[in-house]
């Protein structure tokens, strides 16, 4: 009887150790799968955010008024446009994901082109905010010098808004097909180019 109990105890220990190994193996496998998808997305978001931070750090060397104006434009206007356009582009990822899963590959390009038209139209509606930044900020009680500088910077930021159209839609288009590495490479190149250009 004692030997049988001893054998059962050893078998139970073996089973528990093998189950803990299989749990560890599954966690490691899931973690690797997650990082294949999440890693490029993190690099892309880091690059997008990093470009504005790099610009802000260089503008800080010019003067406090310029830095305050740039921070206002980025925080209020560009982030506002970013949120609207990124939210709208997220619908494209859903549509492309469904088309890709259903093997209707011809619809991927159609959805991408339609999203360009819709986001371009939305960006046109956002333009007055960027064009009339100075009077809007003065109306809100901002100092005249900062409001005028912000108005100048916001005009230069219009190109950023239209760049979001291509950037966000292409990101969603590629993510729906699990081609995340392409996005990460492009994000890394754009960040490196931005830093290099600011150096000069």
UniProtKB/TrEMBL annotation:
UniProt keyword terms in alphabetical order: Membrane, Transmembrane, Transmembrane helix
The source's superkingdom equals: Eukaryota
Positions of transmembrane segments: 34-55, 67-95, 116-133, 153-174
Instruction: Extract the InterPro entries matched here.
Output: MATE_fam
PANTHER family reported in the protein's UniProt record: MULTIDRUG RESISTANCE PROTEIN
The family classification in the record reads: Belongs to the multi antimicrobial extrusion (MATE) (TC 2.A.66.1) family.
Q: What is this protein called?
A: Protein DETOXIFICATION 23
Q: Which organism is it from?
A: Stylosanthes scabra
